[in-house]
């Protein structure tokens, strides 16, 4: 009922794709067949702006929690209740709420961002949202809770109305509107450095996914490791500034029938909880006639993006 923690999306991919999906971690965000003529150059796309390497130098300023309330009576209004960043004090906007409404000071340590309201008054009624923003990781999460106030203890209750939790609370009592997210991302102590990595794998036809060959590992630190002679011979190529642009596309020149198979690009940003895979089945067709008058035929069969979880 609270912030949905990232769950690997169910992979709706047919046949061979599905096999390789189950064997490794990561959400398949793209799966395509690409057919190119022998002798041509393939560029297998793999982009993600979220992989761009910008160190979280400001650390704590990049995260913020804020609670807002929407009231429908006496008239419609939206109000910021409070906000807080790690290392900063919480800001309570309405002076009447100072000392009465708060989030635990340990919020960014233990992931408990719940809003505590003491001595509930009638005008506390409204729909509250707990919003967590991680600017560096471009992750935004929010949940809603409705607060109603009653004068009769008999009417106190909490329930789920199909969209959000509704709390009916006794006038003058205290209430905790829950907002808990224990993902390490929202808490302290995680080192971002060295936790961003991209790699490409190649699986020739008839080879099991777990026997795929690693082609190259790319680290945000600038380190690269390529395996076999293909990169040294410039047969394969990934841009030097991949992490600056978030572009990890693999170029393969002078295609030969032996190049056919499944290529997969894996992007991992552990700090931000990003783990994505893109899979391409490369098919090498007959070479083009000597004086080509038409552009190479590219057949791409796209699978719709699987529903992505809330990050
Ligand atoms: C979160 O903090 C509130 C206020 O301190 C507390 O009442 C509640 O039990 C905590 N929730 C969890 C899940 O720790
Ligand atoms: C809570 O308040 C809303 C809006 O004022 C109202 O529509 C709803 O019936 C109330 N629910 C309860 C259980 O009091
Ligand atoms: C790609 O081609 C294979 C056969 O080579 C086929 O089974 C599969 O369905 C195709 N995938 C897509 C996404 O069209």
Automatic annotation (TrEMBL):
Pfam families: V-set (PF07686). Residues 290-311 are annotated as: Disordered. Keywords: Signal. GO terms for cellular component: cell surface; membrane. It comes from the Eukaryota. The keyword Acyltransferase does not apply. Residues 1-18 form the signal peptide. This is Matrix remodeling-associated protein 8.
């Amino acid at each position: 009922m609270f912030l949905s923690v990232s769950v690997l999306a169910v992979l709706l991919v047919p046949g061979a794709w599905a096999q390789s999906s189950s064997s490794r971690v990561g959400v398949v965000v793209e799966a395509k067949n690409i057919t190119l003529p022998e002798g041509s150059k393939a560029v297998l796309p793999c982009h993600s702006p979220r992989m761009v390497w910008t160190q979280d130098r400001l650390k704590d300023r990049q995260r913020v929690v804020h609670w807002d309330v929407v009231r429908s009576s006496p008239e419609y209004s939206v109000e910021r209740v409070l906000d807080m960043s790690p290392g900063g004090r919480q800001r309570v906007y309405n002076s009447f709420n100072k000392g009465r409404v708060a989030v635990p000071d340990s919020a960014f340590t233990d992931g408990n961002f719940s809003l505590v309201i003491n001595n509930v008054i009638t005008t506390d009624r409204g729909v509250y949202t707990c919003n967590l923003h991680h600017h560096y990781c471009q992750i935004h999460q929010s949940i809603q809770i409705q607060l109603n106030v009653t004068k009769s203890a008999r009417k106190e209750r909490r329930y789920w109305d199909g969209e959000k939790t509704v709390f009916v609370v006794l006038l003058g009592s205290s209430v905790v509107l829950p907002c808990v997210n224990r993902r390490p991302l929202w808490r302290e102590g995680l080192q971002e450095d060295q936790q961003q990595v991209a790699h490409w794998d190649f699986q020739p036809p008839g080879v099991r996914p777990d026997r795929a060959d690693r082609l190259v590992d790319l680290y945000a630190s600038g380190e690269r490791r390529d395996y076999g002679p293909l990169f040294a011979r410039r047969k394969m190529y990934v841009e030097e500034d991949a992490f600056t642009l978030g572009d990890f596309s693999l170029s393969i020149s002078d295609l030969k029938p032996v190049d056919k198979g499944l290529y997969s690009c894996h992007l991992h940003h552990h700090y931000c909880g990003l783990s994505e895979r893109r899979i391409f089945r490369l098919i090498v067709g007959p070479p083009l006639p000597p004086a080509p008058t038409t552009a190479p035929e590219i057949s791409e069969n796209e699978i719709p993006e699987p529903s992505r979880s809330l990050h």
